[in-house]
Amino acid sequence: MSKSNVLRVATFNIRYDAYCGLPAPSTEKTMKTSGEKPWSSRRRKVADTILFHRADIVGLQEVLKNQLSDLETLLGQDWQWVGVGREDGKEADLNSNIILQTPDIPGSKDWDSGLPRVVTQARFQDLVTGQKFWFINTHFDDKGPRSREESAKLILQNSQDLLKSSDIVFLTGDFNCQEVDEPYKLLTGKKYVNNNDKSQLDHALIPFGDTRYEISNRSIETSYGFSNTFTGFSTSIEQVRIDFIMVSNNSLEEQKIKILNHGTMPNLYDDDLYISDHRPVIADFIF
Predict the structure, then answer these.
(1) Looking at the domain assignment, is residue 229 inside a domain?
(2) Vertex 284, ends 214 and 250: CA angle to 5°?
(3) Does position 88 have pLDDT exceeding 90, yes or no?
(4) In terms of residue numbers, what domain contains 189?
(5) Fewer Cβ atoms within 10 Å of its own Cβ: the N or the C terminal residue of the chain?
(6) Is 201 helix (H, G, I), strand (E, B) or coil?
(7) CATH number for position 116
(8) Is residue 253 within 8 Å of residue 207, measured between CB atoms?
């Protein structure tokens, strides 16, 4: 973490600890994936990835309590966390703190969702510039397409006042959807349906901008690294881009914030160790 006026934001689904001897959240048994190594083999590399890339703030997904405890130790005392468990609103796991489907009932689920889904929302202040910002971190359902669409609608509904305020709003997470899918289009106001024609867009109706496509000096700069963010634990699995870092579009339009760069980092080491089935995504901002 630096003291410059550049804010480095990351999102990273670290894959829950399927080998911890406890049931996976909301399922009867753990679901290990072919090629997946135990968390005990992955945890050091996960922490090293965060530290090496000098992230200032990270939205993590699928963090179980034992994993959080390990990360607290490995990352050191400079780091703190915000979040509660999606099962009970307490400590079952630490994905986030607001249940999307039925916000006042922790552990609830609706529509066609396979698991309860949640979102963490917290307000921060940059100590260098004094700029205040909201950070929203989520993880959409991997089974239900309607659940993902309704989750996107709920995020928009619950962030209306934030998007109208003077604060910048970041949105990170594993959305389990691609750019062609409705949840992404809802969150970005269909801004990227046709990247070559922006003339018909009403920018006042665009909630969030996708940082991959909003890099300053776009004619020169391009996103670094990989295009896709989900890899599974095998090269035979189809890779897709489902992890995003977004920022309030009005902040971009009013030039309250600029995106200096964006990148998707590796998750595979040369000893055949996948540190997660997702790659971490990073974006640099300047207020």
Answers:
(1) no
(2) 45
(3) no
(4) 14-193+200-209+235-254
(5) N
(6) coil
(7) 3.60.10.10
(8) no
